[in-house]
Amino acid sequence: MTVVNIIEEAETLNAKLAPLSLAERLSFVAGLDVRVVFTTSLGIEDQVITAEIGNHRLPIDVVTLQTGRLFPETLALLDETESQYDIHITRYEPEQADIDAYAAKYGMNGFYESVEARHACCGVRKLKPLARALAGATIWITGLRRGQSANRAETPFAEYDAERHLLKINPLADWDIETIKSYVADNSVPVNPLHARGYPSIGCEPCTRAIKPGEPERAGRWWWEQDEKRECGLHVGEEATAVAAR
């Protein structure tokens, strides 16, 4: 299939998913007879998607990037989530050789010293494991929402990820944080206790802080950097091609 064909398919999917409920969006994608992978960071959005996948027993592979620097609370939630929904969440970890090479060049916590070093750390601990997690997949499901940051304000329901040559589905694109919280409360979804301590977006422990009143949801990620569009590279890259939501 050519790039043009995939982009056209993304446009078609985007239109089809827009009027559906979350359960309907996930069920539709799960029924496309291709390998579908959902990557969860165990954040509140991702927990909502996991709950739908588990409750409806959808044939979607649920995976997570076990970076080696996650909060203890996140690791505990991982086990709790598997138990509550009777699912297996596959862990993808960085290669020790890559970690050693990074530490030799930048120092174990060298990501504080430069954007280059921080991107290199994300590459080792997130991007390379993600590539393994998505190997053989046609569709990648994420918990991206338009309200998470200005950088994500135009998030569509379906888009072509040119870097990974697959379709990316964002079934919560139009959900706001209050809708997310209501779903969690109404359905007894387990969430990271750090959310209640001022961490709306949770990544690796050394790179995440609580946000201050009035700050955007992702202000606590890589807070020492000045670029307001800071990302790790999982969802924003130079070659990403998005289909505008309709």
UniProtKB/TrEMBL annotation:
Residues 36-210 form the Phosphoadenosine phosphosulphate reductase domain. It is found in: Cytoplasm. CDD domains: PAPS_reductase. The active site is at C232 (nucleophile). Keywords: Cytoplasm, Iron, Iron-sulfur, Metal-binding, Oxidoreductase. Its EC number is 1.8.4.10. Pathway: Sulfur metabolism; hydrogen sulfide biosynthesis; sulfite from sulfate. GO terms for molecular function: 4 iron, 4 sulfur cluster binding; adenylyl-sulfate reductase (thioredoxin) activity; metal ion binding; phosphoadenylyl-sulfate reductase (thioredoxin) activity. InterPro entries: APS_reductase (IPR011798), PAPS/APS_Rdtase (IPR004511), PAPS_reduct_dom (IPR002500), Rossmann-like_a/b/a_fold (IPR014729). Binds 1 [4Fe-4S] cluster per subunit. It catalyses: [thioredoxin]-disulfide + sulfite + AMP + 2 H(+) = adenosine 5'-phosphosulfate + [thioredoxin]-dithiol. GO terms for biological process: cysteine biosynthetic process; hydrogen sulfide biosynthetic process; sulfate assimilation, phosphoadenylyl sulfate reduction by phosphoadenylyl-sulfate reductase (thioredoxin). Its cofactor is [4Fe-4S] cluster. It comes from the Bacteria. Its main location: cytoplasm. [4Fe-4S] cluster binds at C121, C122, C204, C207. GO terms for cellular component: cytoplasm. SUPFAM superfamilies: Adenine nucleotide alpha hydrolases-like. Catalyzes the formation of sulfite from adenosine 5'-phosphosulfate (APS) using thioredoxin as an electron donor. Belongs to the PAPS reductase family. CysH subfamily. This is Adenosine 5'-phosphosulfate reductase.
